[in-house]
Amino acid sequence: MAQRWTLELCRAIGVACAIVLAPAGAPNWIDVAQAQSAALSNFPDVVERVKPAVVGVRAKIERETGETDSSAPKGSPSERFMQKFGLPSTEAPRRLQRATSQGSGFFISADGYVVTTSHVVEGAKTVEVTLDDGKTKSARVVGADDKTDIALLKVEGEGFSFVRLATNAPRIGEWVLAIGNPFGLGGTVTAGIVSARARDIKMGGFNDFIQIDAPVNQGNSGGPTFDVHGNVIGVNSAIFSPTGGSIGIGFAIPAEAVVPVVTRLKQSGAVIRGWLGIQIQSLTAEIAEGFGLTEAKGVIVAEPEPNSPAAKASLATGDVIISVNGEAVTEDRALMKRIGDIAPGTSVTLDVLRNGERRSIAVTLGEMPGPRNPAAMDAKAERREAPARSDGGSLGAGSSGARSLGAASPVPGTPSARSLGLELAPANGKTGGNQAQGVTVTDMDPNGIAAERGIEPGDVILDVGGKATKAPADVETALSETRTRGKRNAVARVKSSDATRFVALPVD
């Protein structure tokens, strides 16, 4: 009867109507609205219960630092350019730098263990926490893991209010509450939903972040995100923001990643992981085609590190790792997690594709390098602040072998560095002899194909199509040969200041 009345009303006012029939047993709009209303009305009770366990974290940092001269500020594009080309930078006298880091945290036990993020307490000389009642207490760093950005603190005392980490992953769309210390405003509560899961925000390979739209800002880092039952589903770690303030895109480290890290930090003060010692990347369809592979599944070895377990086991550049101990791996983060979970000294079997042929390689894992305690974290912070040094070399006029973007056009349809938007020069001539192999990208078209693929000025192209490059002509030859063989992409191995990677360059 209600449906017939609705249709008659629509006809009477001259509009089109439709009735949506829900599947049997599905919740109707009234049920959903009631559930949402119940969750929202429960927020004050949840906050009252969990808020006393949330603390503000304040870390005082002191370290010596040096800075480059004013013409090339530390971290500026000019300084990076100088480093890539082997030009010397001027180091100012070292001085003592004092800073204060503010964040959030939360008690996970009545005897004073506090979880926060590693970057809040990195390099800290002293740490103190501010309780919900405004009292402050000293804390010590039990341990920190920069790979997951988790740190564990200890406050002396008993009887602290504490919360529990969730045992089940949240669902997308669930209501959540974030409580923390944004801009020093302790005890701030915001609400939102889980926007997405398993986000890769390029902050290490050991977290699949939860994305939330509950407003979080500077100072929320290390604080908890709760579900409507008062369980911690994640630890707030980062935001995406062009302004520095919340725009509704925050990222939390999931509870399932936090639990094992906290357990290991509590036991030994460090998280010790297995290590292969290779630079890797996921296999894309373009790179797979360039290598002549039929499927884009696996992880490609860009470069084994010298004297690493991988190098000692003869793992080679271009090998595609497809499984570890028989368990398939499809992308780089999965491989990092799989290896990281295995104890150093353990022998593992890697199934790899080398030149299209499958083979098994046994590797005895080493220990992943990294800080083992707060003192090591402090030393790492000091090393990061010190400017890089480089000897010799200058970027003078008249360098031989450079290809100009304004040179005569190549034969139409012929792939070339110029058609990709690249200007190249022999690496030996440009870097003062520091680079024995490759050609340097001296300039490029910012709207060209190479720029779209992430190549930047100062990068060194080590090889193309598996053939070493020592002059710009070698790149041209490799591009042409790749096209002659009927492939659509030439795979170049490119070395940047901090990593080596494969890049697919189209030749069709």
Question: How are the SSEs ordered, and which strands pair?
Answer:
Layout: H1 2-13, H2 29-50, E1 54-65, H3 77-84, E2 95-107, E3 113-116, H4 118-121, E4 124-130, E5 136-145, E6 150-154, E7 175-180, E8 188-199, E9 209-212, E10 224-226, E11 232-239, E12 250-254, H5 255-268, E13 274-275, E14 278-282, H6 285-290, E15 299-304, H7 309-312, E16 320-324, E17 327-328, H8 332-340, E18 347-354, E19 357-364, E20 366-367, H9 374-385, H10 417-420, E21 422-426, H11 427-430, E22 439-444, H12 449-452, E23 460-464, E24 467-468, H13 472-484, E25 489-495, E26 500-506
Antiparallel strand pairs: 1-2, 1-4, 2-3, 3-6, 4-5, 5-6, 7-8, 7-10, 8-9, 9-12, 10-11, 11-12, 13-20, 14-15, 15-16, 16-17, 16-18, 18-19, 21-22, 22-23, 23-24, 23-25, 25-26
Describe the overall structure.
The protein is α+β, with helices and mostly antiparallel strands. The protein has three domains: 51-268, Thrombin, subunit H, CATH 2.40.10; 274-367, Pdz3 Domain; 417-506, Pdz3 Domain (Roll), CATH 2.30.42.10. It has helices at 2-13, 29-50, 77-84, 118-121, 255-268, 285-290, 309-312, 332-340, 374-385, 417-420, 427-430, 449-452, 472-484, and strands at residues 54-65, 95-107, 113-116, 124-130, 136-145, 150-154, 175-180, 188-199, 209-212, 224-226, 232-239, 250-254, 274-275, 278-282, 299-304, 320-324, 327-328, 347-354, 357-364, 366-367, 422-426, 439-444, 460-464, 467-468, 489-495, 500-506. The strands form five sheets. The chain has a six-stranded antiparallel β-barrel. Strands 7-8-9-12-11-10 form a six-stranded antiparallel barrel. Strand 18 (347-354) and strand 19 form a beta hairpin. The chain is elongated, with a radius of gyration of 28 Å. 38% of the residues are buried. Mean pLDDT is 77; it is low at 1-23, 67-72, 372-412 and 429-435.
